[in-house]
């Protein structure tokens, strides 16, 4: 095992260095104006990260939307990762996850007519099209666009997982980073996400020191707040489980297709639930064969109170999946999550975001 890791490192590390060189050249081309950035006359908030995998971008986008949609006409734009369509697609009541991607579908289903949601690989064209369709939009939130530098952001919000921070990682493919840690210099706000409960003040300080941010950059800490179980198929639901009444030792089949299902599994285990995990790749499109596997694994569980738990992001794909077994529709539930800020963040994050917009050159 150790020898395999060494061989892997010897092979991947040189590739990682070449990748880093390419990224550095690209960034210099933007800084020197060889590659052009487009500036828009409305605020553009970019939410992104440096690492591959889930740092919680979509829940943080939803947090910002929920906090600001009473003040602004918001447009949310992403590339629509793993969708089956191409080009610009506007979210409508007829949209499906495969049309606009599961994350955009989740946001549209949650906020519906109160905001405008669209997907487009080319964010510059996407913003232009959205403004043509709805000229009342006066704020854009770009999901996962920190590396898409053709749009000049008004505010850049960069997320890093507390337990997998950028300062312990390496560039792809040797590590998980899309850019080096130095790219944090472009961020206005950095959020350490998925923080454990009961953090001490010393932990905040040590984490901040290791990030080595500039004085003008603001650092916040967030965690996930889990809600109550919600039926994936409301019309078929009968008994909805509640964690405070579940008998200890109840077996639950956790079906996930997210980058890091560990926090969700840990949350259930903290409530004395026996978790049987079926882990699929991130943004997985569930097949008929997958559904048969889920049916078989569920049948293996013991106890009368057994059920299936999944994440909110997975729920939108499972709800729209034609292969999902009918007899299991009353047995599957998702747990919605919201972002909660720790310490001063609950009061200061949104005001800091708005102040950064006001202080920007374009909107002074």
- The count of β-strands is 14
Low-confidence residue ranges = none
Order of helices and strands: HEHEEHHEHEEEHEEEHEHEHEEH
Count of runs of 4 or more consecutive helical residues: 10
Question: Could you describe the largest sheet, including whether it forms a barrel?
Answer: 9 strands, mixed
Note down, in words, how this protein is organized.
The protein has ten helices and 14 strands. It has 364 residues and is an alpha/beta fold. The strands form two sheets. Strands 3-4-2-5-1-6-7-8-14 form a nine-stranded mixed β-sheet, with helices on both faces. Helix 4 (102-111) crosses helix 9 (312-319). The mean pLDDT is 92.
Task: List its salient traits.
single chain, 364 residues, 9-stranded mixed β-sheet, 34% helix, 20% strand
How would you concisely characterize the structure shown here?
With 364 residues, the protein is an alpha/beta fold. Helices cover 34% and strands 20% of the residues. The model has no long low-confidence stretch (mean pLDDT 92).
């Amino acid at each position: 095992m150790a020898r395999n890791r060494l061989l892997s490192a010897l092979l991947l590390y040189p590739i990682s260095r070449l990748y880093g060189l390419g990224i550095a050249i690209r960034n210099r081309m933007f800084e020197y104006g060889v590659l052009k950035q487009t500036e828009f006359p409305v605020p553009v908030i970019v939410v992104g990260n440096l690492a591959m995998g889930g740092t919680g971008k979509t829940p943080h986008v939803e947090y910002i939307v929920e906090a600001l949609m009473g003040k602004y006409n918001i447009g949310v734009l992403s590339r629509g990762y793993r969708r089956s369509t191409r080009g610009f697609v506007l979210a409508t009541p007829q949209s499906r996850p495969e049309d606009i991607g599961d994350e955009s579908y989740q946001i549209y289903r949650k906020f519906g007519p109160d905001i405008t949601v669209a997907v487009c690989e080319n964010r510059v064209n996407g913003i232009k099209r959205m403004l043509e369709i709805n000229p009342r939009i006066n704020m854009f939130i770009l999901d996962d666009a920190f590396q898409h530098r053709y749009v000049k952001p008004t505010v850049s919000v960069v997320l890093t997982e507390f337990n997998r921070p950028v300062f312990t990682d390496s560039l792809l493919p040797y590590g998980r980073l899309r850019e080096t840690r130095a790219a944090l210099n472009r961020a206005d706000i950095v959020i350490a996400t998925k923080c454990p409960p009961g953090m001490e003040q010393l932990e905040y300080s040590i984490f901040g020191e290791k990030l080595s941010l500039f004085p003008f950059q603001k650092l916040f800490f967030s965690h996930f707040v889990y809600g109550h179980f919600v039926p994936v198929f409301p019309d078929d639901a009968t008994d909805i489980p509640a964690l405070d009444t579940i008998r200890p030792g109840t077996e639950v089949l956790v079906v996930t297709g997210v980058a890091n299902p560990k926090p969700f599994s840990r949350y259930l285990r903290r409530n004395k639930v026996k978790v049987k995990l079926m882990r699929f790749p991130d943004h997985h499109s569930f097949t008929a064969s997958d559904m048969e596997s889920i049916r078989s694994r569920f049948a293996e569980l013991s106890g009368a109170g057994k059920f299936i738990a999944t994440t909110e992001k997975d729920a939108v794909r499972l709800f729209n999946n034609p292969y999902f077994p009918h007899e299991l529709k009353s047995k599957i539930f998702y747990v919605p999550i919201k972002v909660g800020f720790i310490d001063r963040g609950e009061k200061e994050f949104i005001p800091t975001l708005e102040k950064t917009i006001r202080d920007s050159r374009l909107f002074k």
